Amino acid sequence: MTPEVVIAGGGPTGLMLAAELALAGVDAVIVERRASQDLAGSRAGGLHARTIEVLDQRGIADRFLAEGKTAQVAGFAKVSLDISDFPTRHNYGLGLWQNHIERILADWVRELGVTIHYGHEVTRFVQDATGVDVELATGQRLRAQYLVGCDGGRSLIRKAAGIEFPGWDPTTSALIAQVEMAEEPPLGIHRDAFGIHSFGRLEYEIRDGQVVYKDHGPVGVMVTEEHIGPPSDPTLRDPTLRDLSEALIAVCGTDYGVHNHTWISRFTDMTRQAAAYWDKRVLLAGDAAHVHAPDGGQGLNIGVQDAVNLGWKLAQVVKRTSPESLLDTYHAERHPVAARVLRNTMASVALRRPDERTKAVGELMAELLSMEEPRRHFAAMMSGLDIHYDLGEGHPQLGRRMPDLDVVTADGPRRVFTLLHDARPVLLNLGEPGSIDITPWSDRVELIDATYAGTWELPVLGVVTVPTAVLIRPDGYVAWVDDPARRGLADALTTWFGPPTVA
């Protein structure tokens, strides 16, 4: 087997990356240490607006929307942040457990022809100037151009590559599990002097378009521990059913007859970020690149978005369309996004402390977030709709997500997101048809003449005048905006999609 890219880890990040590479025509394989996708946990419980937009860009958002429940899920420091007035078709979040998210992604990945090797784990690898040799626990060896670690916070790939993981040690820890219980637990979210605890049914069905949870079957449990786990590194020792039972008794006075666990995991507020997102032939994405407290439900979302940022760039490097230096922009763009998440989760954890002084700060924060501008600022941040990559000075849209405009093309009415289903860059000409010539890049960039009358909005900036042309990257961010002199288009095309083809 000689894939071009080996992806270690078949969670949401690894699956999304595999799909992006497949759409770009790159041969990638996933190696996942779990024996099957059925063993996927439910550490995460939903999708934020920007992630839903990303899935819409690939034409698969409806698969998730059909199984989950839309709701206002953005929040900070116990304050719910409504985004229903934001200018996006998906001005909501989606409640959907991670195991279902993974299942839907895995089905899509298989449709794209990607092979997923369950029950396979990377044990070591060796890099050289042209590629990486990957050894699996089964003894099998793979040779690839690149290896991407999507193998979680305890990433073997990151450690073996020698990439530093600076940050802060944990101050609190919790157990999360999928179990059965002989007694009915108090469903919902509960707070006390220990911290936050929750119980929720995992099995559900869709009735009349609504999610209805069953009154039997497995329970998702989260319980804050009285003490932080093993002091050296709470993530290194896998917790047991006994640990969960003892934690429940300490908090609730009973363990509700907990038994027959599918999986048990521990998470903490340990906050760390990889010093480099790529080194030679190894790249990192998702939790392998950044770990933080689960406050705000952002981890899965930024991992999927890491994959969408990285996929097309890595594909172009593999295909030698672009130089390897393009991968520098992956770190430059995604590292600050995760750093901001690390900051806001640490702040949120601090506001969870039960002492009176912290409660006073929380009350002031809640008062602040009831005001319009702070609410919009924090809601845009938590939902991922305000992400702004630094692509230089220019139009306010530059470096921001492209709105899903309704346009009219030669094929009839379209939404902009439908133009991105194949993960190809698009130069959308909203000016005079035929006025732009990108022949030297026509094998890589799709030029579409369209019309649109109106304005569009950004969650933070408000109304922006529609430009006459925009260059949209495969990840849905704007790489160039037209100006009266039409300057910089050739440079932008070369920067992002390689040098022009010489006739």
UniProtKB/TrEMBL annotation:
It comes from the Bacteria. Residues 4-345 form the FAD-binding domain. Its cofactor is FAD. InterPro entries: FAD-bd, FAD/NAD-bd_sf, RIFMO-like. GO terms for molecular function: monooxygenase activity. Keywords: FAD, Flavoprotein, Monooxygenase, Oxidoreductase. This is FAD-dependent monooxygenase. The lineage of its organism: Bacteria, Bacillati, Actinomycetota, Actinomycetes, Micrococcales.
